[in-house]
Design a protein that fits this description.
heterodimer, A: mainly alpha, Rossmann fold, 6-stranded mixed β-sheet, two-stranded antiparallel ribbon, 6% strand, globular, B: alpha+beta, SH3 type barrels, 4-stranded antiparallel β-sheet, two-stranded antiparallel sheet, 6 strands
Chain lengths: 670, 94
């Protein structure tokens, strides 16, 4: 048996779904968090031993989709014949929600209305006559508070839904038989439906506090959405998130954790004393060391997730969208692009998928293309390592990394706007401002633990395997003999990575070890750290504490043979080249266009290369008074990229002009 | 009485503006804190019109302007609060 959960955006569907199934799908206090269908069996305490699947759907205002994710919902309830529908209604906004309810009631599937957020109504003194509403709608109505642990009405909702499955309900309002292609008729019909809804609301709802009165939350909004103050506050909030997670709290915990990892590594090495030296290196250095190097940075990522979860939960995200919309519009994106970017500080994949809530196709694709320029959680270890090894753990490296990311998003958006020949088209912005609520620490904690679990699993699988492979490729040469000391350049890894290294000479880091680390980074960005640990010998590397204490002149920096300038160039190269393969996969499914996908990958490669080139050449010029090696070849490479972009732009614009001309002619003929 | 007094004290553009209050204006010209009845709504984008409709924003319905910024405003439609950009606000005639 399948029970679908449908309702307006931000009515609490996923919170209820999580409570009923024990899952931990993403929740947040803004419209458009859920962007795809999720399903899972109900916990047995709710299903009563029956085989019941709950299906969580993206929020929708009606059966006619406006944004892509709304389409998923109407298609599912219309085509997939669920056995029952739980319609989650935001009790604080009955007058809007019931429009969709009356449409759901017409489908011939039994509906149970869950009047969610009933606790807020109680606080505001709004009462709803449940019995009367049931009578008017012809379906059960149950008060719920999905955020509560007990006495939340959830089991009643499910009980009712299960008992009604397969039965028939009489729709209180049936759409007249009209021509759905005739706009005027559809319009008139929808008006009739709304006045029917207005009639019901007038009879069942009594409000103490009118929703049009100015509240404290409006006063807060005035500040947070103020074009000047709002942006300064947003910058301050994000600064705090990064500073707490990556300079203060996160780093303190990481220091403590690294001590434990080292002890474990020594213990493993001790156990392996009698084993063959090759096995020792592979296990102690390759597996434990490489994975340990990555896991050591876990606390930074966890603290960051905790803080972002608090932001997502309190209702701030919609305000940020509102305040950033004018700026983003100027570069051809939308205020809604901000949410993917903030989510992207955690992980690029949900960020790319989050672009689905953007209605305009070009804005949506551009957001999916550019959002990964903001460094994600997997890049935090890379940033932290370089900040620690070359810049004495300086906090500014982190801020420069994020700031450059944002800058690249803006520049990239301008480029996309220029290349696609974006002629002026109206791009509207409307976003619901949800009520503020105190963020749930428990939920933030679980969001953090969920992430930690995923991170550790990734470290123990993909990253472990990669490290092992790198270690083996480095240990053996092509005749599968152990590479003798002093002849490291003959290893399989060295010979494969060397041709790539040549391309990186203009960027200041043309050695095979660094090239190899950058390449494994495409599998997962944490691999950059893992591979560096492996190729440069772990013992010199994992000592993060010492590395932070001694600063620039420490052994790690010496081993890599990078100056502060080339280290920064290498860091930026890894941050701004294409994200991992998984994120590229997400881009592919979100963009629905091979042309856009390849342009995105090309743009990201070009960006990473150009940024690293500029940092290296300009940095060397400033520090040492001369240009770095390979200036001319690098310049030529970048010139080629520019030519390609111009050619693509020409091609697109030519098509555009033709289309434009056709439109014009059609207009004239008519 | 108060409105009339205000009206008498103003000349030129201001008076014209006040005059429009009695007639038609777009949401950008409206007064924060006031509730209006929507007289016309056309964004020249059918899907957008339909979307606004489903939020309860259509001719004959009420809309309350909570606050105005340089490039956006906050409104109440039905019982929900929304932020709109000026492009949309201009398309809503009250």
């Amino acid at each position: 048996m399948r029970i679908a959960f449908a309702g307006n955006p931000n009515s609490g569907k996923t919170t209820m779904y999580n409570a009923l199934t024990g899952r931990s799908e993403k929740v947040g206090n803004w419209a458009g968090v859920t962007i795809g269908k999720n399903d899972a069996p109900l916990k047995s305490e709710f299903s009563g031993g029956k085989d019941v699947i709950a299906v969580d759907l993206p929020g929708a205002y009606s059966m006619s989709p406006f944004t892509p994710e709304e389409g998923i919902t109407s298609e599912y309830v219309r085509e997939e014949n669920p056995d029952a529908i739980v319609n989650i209604v935001d009790a604080t906004n009955l007058s809007r929600s019931l429009f969709f309810t009356t449409q759901l009631l017409e489908l011939g599937v039994p509906v149970v209305v869950a009047l969610n957020k009933s606790d807020i109504n109680e606080k505001e003194g709004t009462t709803i006559d449940i019995a009367k509403l049931e009578e008017k709608l012809g379906c059960p109505v149950i008060k719920t508070v999905s955020t509560e642990k007990s006495n939340n009405g959830l089991s009643e909702v499910i009980e009712k839904a299960i008992s009604l499955a397969g039965t028939e309900q009489k729709a209180p309002y049936l759409q007249a038989d009209i021509d759905l292609h005739d706009k005027a008729q559809v319009d008139a019909e929808d008006r009739k439906r709304f006045s029917f809804v207005n009639g019901i609301v007038g009879e069942v709802e009594t409000r103490k506090q009118l929703s049009t009165e100015e509240t404290t939350s409006d006063k807060v909004d005035k500040v947070l959405t103020n074009p000047v103050a709002g942006i300064i506050i947003f910058a301050g909030v994000m600064w705090c998130v990064f500073a707490i997670s990556q300079t203060y709290l996160g780093t303190w915990i990481a220091d403590w954790l690294v001590g434990w990892i080292e002890m474990f590594q020594e213990w493993v090495a001790g156990k392996l004393e009698s084993a063959p030296p090759v096995l020792q290196t592979i296990l102690a250095d390759g597996v434990v060391g490489g994975v340990g190097a990555v896991v050591g940075f876990l606390p930074l990522v966890m603290v960051m997730y905790f803080l972002i979860a608090l932001l997502e939960d309190c209702g701030y995200m919609a305000r940020v969208s509102a305040v950033m919309d004018p700026i983003f519009k100027r570069v051809g994106l939308s205020g809604k692009s901000v949410i993917p970017i903030i989510i992207g500080t955690g992980c690029g994949i949900p960020a790319i998928m989050g672009s689905r809530t953007i209605r305009d196709e070009r804005e949506r694709r551009a957001t999916a293309m550019l959002t990964t320029f903001i460094p994600c959680g997997a890049k935090i270890p890379v940033i932290a390592l370089f900040a620690g090894a070359f810049f004495a753990g300086a906090g500014w490296v982190t801020f420069v990394s994020y700031f450059t990311g944002i800058l690249l998003i803006f520049l990239g958006a301008l480029l996309v706007k220029a290349v696609t020949g974006y002629k002026y088209r109206k791009s509207f912005f409307i976003m619901e401002l949800p009520k503020y609520k105190a963020p749930s620490l428990v939920r933030a904690f679980w969001s953090m633990m969920e992430r930690a679990k995923a991170y550790i699993i990734k470290a123990a699988t993909i990253i472990l395997v990669c490290n092992l492979v790198v270690q083996l490729m480095q240990t053996y040469n092509w005749s599968f003999e152990v590479v003798p000391e002093g002849a490291e350049d003959t290893s399989i890894l060295a010979t494969i990575a060397s041709p790539f290294a040549v391309l990186l000479v203009p960027l200041g880091f043309g050695v095979w070890q660094l090239a190899a680390a950058a390449i494994t980074g495409f599998i997962a960005k944490e691999n950059v750290v893992g591979t560096l640990a492996v190729v440069y010998g772990l013992t010199r590397f994992i000592d993060v504490e010492e590395l932070e204490m001694t600063g620039g002149a420490n052994t790690v920096a010496a081993a890599m043979g990078l100056t502060t300038v080339t280290a920064l160039a290498y860091l930026f190269f890894n941050l701004f080249t294409p994200p991992c393969f998984a994120a590229i996969g997400a881009m592919n499914s979100e963009m629905q266009s091979k042309g856009w996908l390849w342009s995105a990958i090309g743009l990201q490669l070009a960006t990473g290369y150009t940024v690293a080139f500029l940092v290296n050449q300009i940095g060397t010029l400033v520090v040492e008074g001369h240009l770095a090696a390979g200036f001319l070849p690098g310049l030529i490479a970048i010139a080629i990229m520019v030519v390609v972009i111009v050619l693509i732009s020409r091609k697109i614009r030519a098509g555009f002009d033709e289309k434009y001309e056709l439109h014009r002619k059609a207009g004239q003929a008519a | 009485m108060e409105a009339a007094a205000k009206y008498n004290g103003k000349i030129g553009l201001d008076a014209l503006k006040e005059d429009r209050v009695l007639d038609k204006m777009n949401l950008l010209e409206a007064q924060p804190g006031e509730t209006y009845t929507i007289k016309e709504l056309d964004t020249e984008d059918e899907d957008m019109n339909a979307f606004l409709f489903r939020l309860g924003c259509y001719t004959g319905e009420q809309i309350t302007l909570i606050s105005k910024k340089k490039k956006s405003c906050i409104v109440v439609i039905k019982d929900g609060r929304y932020t709109l950009d000026n492009l949309l606000a201009e398309a809503i005639i009250v």
